[in-house]
Amino acid sequence: MKKTYYITTPIYYPSGNLHIGNTYTTVFCDALRRYKDMRGYDTYYLTGMDEHGKKIETVAQERNLHPIKHVDEIAEATKALWDRMSISYDDFIRTTEKRHKTVVQKLFEQLLDQGDIYLGEYEGYYCMHCEAFFTESQLEEGNACPDCERETSKLQEESYFLRLSKYQKKLLNFIEDNPDFITPETRRNEVLNFIRQGLNDLSVSRTTFDWGIKIVSNPKHVVYVWIDALSNYISALGYGTDNDELFQKYWYGDEVVHVVGKDILRFHAIYWPIMLMALGIPITFKLHAHGFYTAKEGKMSKSKGSVVYPDTLIERYGLDELRYFLLRELPYGGDGVFTPASFVERINYDLANDFGNLLNRTVSMINKYLSGKVASYSEASTEYDADLQTMCKETVATYSDYMDNLKVSEAIKTVWAFISRTNKYIDETEPWILGKDKNKKDELENVLYHLAESLRHIGVMLQPILLDASQSLFKQLGIPQALRRYETLSFGELREAEVVRKPSPLFPRLDQEKEIDKLTKHLRGEEEEPVPEEEDNLATFDDFTKLDMRVAKITKCAPHKNADKLLVLQVDLGEGKERQIVAGIAKHYEPESLVGKKVVVVANLEPVTLRGEKSEGMLLAGSNDDILEVLTVDRLNPGDSVS
Ligand code: MSP
Fold first, then answer.
1. Ligand 1 atom index nearest CA of 294
2. What digits encode the pLDDT tens for the residues 377-397?
């Protein structure tokens, strides 16, 4: 029987689009889930949305929408984002779903019947953003919230309370007896100190707004959003229902991990375990709190143009590039900084130079010297071979240990140290010199074998991190499916392989300065500078003839789901198969009015993905200050050339 692994992200507030900070948690869990899959676990990955509370109600009101309309929209957009990011989640729970509400109502009544929740009165200062009450002494200057520093308002209301005080000792004992319950250790200590100062009973209901789960026995109250939200980890598994198979299997299984950001540690380390204790459910989970992504000048801020959204980065640079950066740059227990420079440099130095080049050189040399075939394994014959093999073995062990302990950034660094070692091996063994001497054929075969086998190991270890690049590596090296598995990581398992004739770069190198500049401007919301019309900017005739312009008939046209300005068109270029083109003309045309029109298309532009939709060409259009008009033709047919 396989061991089980249940991993969860926090459920996100649908207050706006997710930025790279909250995206990080989801990518982190995805990498761990994929790693555990690779290690043969039966895994289950839960994510979702935390859709109730005053804050969401207010955001919806500002948009003139019923809250459910608002949260439906954001939940769809979030799922689409996860799909674009190839997040391998099994379930997406939304707290507005019936399956969740029923469980929350039931457990609330149970706690009320048991006397763990009681009715009282609350007087204090309320922070709408954090959905939390504070006493006057806890406030910052100007009655500001001690957590988010926003202004609080004074409130007095009837409220239900959860008896945290009753469970304080039990929780303290539990955390002390289970040193690995909360990681990293610094976070564990923070929690212990907080509990030792004494826990006040927690207000767990609200009467000042409606947008929440009603308390069955007293419907003028709605359940406090954190009690509602934390329950998702078990409601999604069917806890308390007739169909609780998943709950039985994964909650009581081998490993349960909640991953959260450091800002929401207390809720997960105190309220959640106490809720479980009161409900008589064992605390089977481990809690991991990661740090924050910030901008260079501190917290990401919209007004300073330092909030970074994942869509832009994926479209422009690619998914693997973003996953790599996010997972690499945030160290275990610490914070990470996103700057355009660090992002572009990681792509160029780590991905294109160190890793991409290693594969490229290896495939090229195997083609050049061995007609594309990697020779079978021979024993380590030089000290370089022995050293490389030893490091390969150690790398697998260290990498696995780090991944097992949620140290993903450290695991990646370990693999990169091995990539550097493998690059050095090329300098040490100088295959281009061996290639000149017929008598050195065996030696050369052995060197290239070592390179291919090292790369196979690297590819396997990077599978949970770099989704496309690891598969491309296997393809380019001709590694059979069976040898892409973790269990085959032992130097010498590769017998023979035939590499592709022409290697393709894993990661195209970026023009560093230009990209840093572009990205910086983009984040600030500034338009790109127009290209100056200088004389040496004239296009040559050759430049012009490079463009393959053709007539295309528009067969379908629809608005782009994620961008107001774009239309998604299907066009017939007489190729027997339609192509998709994304065009920035939504403000000028109704989609249906374009269907049937014959237009001119640049057919040999490099394909791009625009907000998640592939575009394989460009429409020609003319414009002035008032109008934009797509160029159309009359008597020509699809596929006819234009010059
Ligand atoms: N809805 C609650 C969680 C309930 S879980 C039962 C919530 N939502 S959130 O959308 O505000 O935040 C979700 C996660 O994103 C949290 O783990 C939070 O720590 C994380 N992050 C938000 N900003 C972040 C960064 N700048 N960097 C890294 N993680 C960040 O809290």
1. 26
2. 666 689 999 999 999 999 999
